[in-house]
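Re: [ENG-882] Designed sequences occasionally contain unexpected residues at chain ends

Forwarding the minimal case from QA. Structure tokens:
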């Protein structure tokens, strides 16, 4: 999930404490991001789905995780489409399934980031 070498190359000028802090912030915040995405689906709030997926896309991109970035992009795009079409074509189980896939991907990513952090 995380391209470790790309991540380390990107942040090679940062000291250990800053890298640790960046990873810790992500690890503490990502579960809440998924709670919000699931709530967006429950409330049929397509604008927030788009916005929250966009935010998550940016965060995972920071950690050089292209698969998670792509899944977040797909959710962002779906939120935009549902918003434009007043919810037409919305399939709750399909969208929830995409969030589940993204959550699993990000969970793996979080484990990898913890390993990177431990190796610093």
């Amino acid at each position: 999930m995380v391209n470790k070498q790309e991540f380390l190359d990107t942040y090679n000028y940062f000291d250990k404490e800053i890298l640790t802090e960046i990873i810790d912030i992500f690890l503490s915040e990502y579960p809440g991001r998924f709670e919000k995405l699931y709530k967006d689906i429950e409330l049929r709030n397509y604008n927030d789905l788009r916005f929250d997926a966009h935010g998550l896309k940016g965060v995972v991109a920071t950690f050089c995780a292209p698969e998670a970035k792509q899944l977040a992009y797909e959710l962002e795009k779906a939120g935009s489409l549902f918003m434009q079409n007043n919810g037409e074509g919305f399939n709750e189980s399909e969208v929830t399934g995409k969030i589940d896939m993204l959550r699993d991907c990000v969970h793996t990513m979080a484990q990898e980031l913890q390993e990177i952090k431990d190796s610093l």
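QA comment: On inspection the terminal residues look reasonable. The helical segments are 4-10, 16-43, 46-62, 66-84, 92-119. Proposing we downgrade this to a documentation issue.
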